[in-house]
Design goal:
The protein has 5 helices and 9 strands. It has 182 residues and is α+β, with helices and mostly antiparallel strands. It comes from Azospirillum argentinense. This is Heme utilization cystosolic carrier protein HutX. It holds the Pfam family ChuX_HutX.
Length: 182
């Protein structure tokens, strides 16, 4: 969302972000990043420990393949000018011509430079007054979100329990932690 390149945050900036996000973790993190002039990754790292976890970017393909088995999810791309959401099953992708290609039988498709993913984030927090949200965020080398994949919701806007279990298991596996400890 920022229009300019984020700067390296100072220790004071990080302390202020940690305090702010501990008190109110439910806002739009891209707006916080733009307001403070730091990357989305830096803001996400300042969320309380129980609300975020990270795995290395090399696990991005494993994350994509796992999520292709979850059923209907929401893929979100957030820029300064657009918040684009697409709901559907995530297709199984494959590498070709420098891209991770998604195609076949879903409204979700496209070509991702997955090799540019440096960090895979797992964020589970309240959002904008709704109950719970859970997303897998693919961060590039600039600390910005390439895209996010959100756990699906039922008709009552509650997270789908089977997808929450898969989210937690994927987080634990990609971080190398036993399930239930990540």
């Amino acid at each position: 969302m920022p229009h300019s390149t984020p700067t390296a945050p100072t220790p004071d900036t990080l302390a202020a972000l940690r305090e702010r996000l501990a008190a109110a973790p439910n806002g739009v993190l891209e707006a916080v990043a733009a307001e403070t002039g730091v990357s989305l990754l830096a803001v996400t790292e300042c969320l309380p420990e129980g609300l975020r976890a990270f795995a290395p970017g090399e696990t991005a393909e494993a994350a994509m393949l796992d999520m292709a088995e979850w059923g209907t999810v929401t893929v979100l791309v957030h820029s300064a000018d657009l918040v684009l959401e697409c709901k559907g099953p995530l297709p199984r992708g494959q590498f070709g011509r420098g891209f991770y290609n998604l195609a076949g039988g879903s409204p979700i498709g496209g070509h991702i430079r997955l090799d540019r993913c440096r960090t895979v984030g797992f964020v589970r927090r309240p959002f904008m007054g709704s109950a719970d949200s859970a997303s897998v965020v693919f961060f590039n080398g600039d600390g910005e979100a390439m895209f996010k994949v959100f756990v699906g919701r039922d008709d009552a806007r509650q997270l789908l329990p089977d997808q929450v279990e898969r989210f937690e298991a994927l987080k634990a596996r990609l971080r190398g932690a036993p399930p239930g400890t990540a």
